């Protein structure tokens, strides 16, 4: 499993695929200083290394995205629900 696959799954989990502004904001909250373009996000979402659109996501960039998700949750930009699996 590579960083691109993890990133793609996080994008899907938080339903962020169609909200580039929020994705860019999450990166910024996580410490990313360079611009995150739509095409760059698309290339990072590609986890098939044989694709011409594939571009490997660096470890520190994935870490910034995860840190940004945590901060976005604290700031109320996204909501994270954790279900214990018990049904009421």
User: What's the overall geometry?
Assistant: globular
Q: What is the typical, i.e. mean, pLDDT?
A: 91
Q: Any idea what the radius of gyration is? A: 14 Å
The beta-strand count equals: 0
What share of the residues does DSSP label as strand, in percent?
A: under 5%
For the biggest sheet, the summary is:
none
Tally of separate helices? 4
Our measurement of the CA-to-CA distance between the termini, rounded to an integer number of angstroms, reads 35 Å
Characterization of this structure:
- This protein has 4 helices and no strands.
- The protein is mainly alpha-helical and 88 residues long.
- Helix content is 51%, strand content 0%.
- It starts with a helix and ends in a 14-residue tail after the last helix.
Helices, strands, pairings?
Elements: H1 3-13, H2 20-29, H3 38-45, H4 59-74
List keywords for this structure.
88 residues, mainly alpha, 4 helices
Could you give a short description of this structure?
With 88 residues, the protein is mainly α.
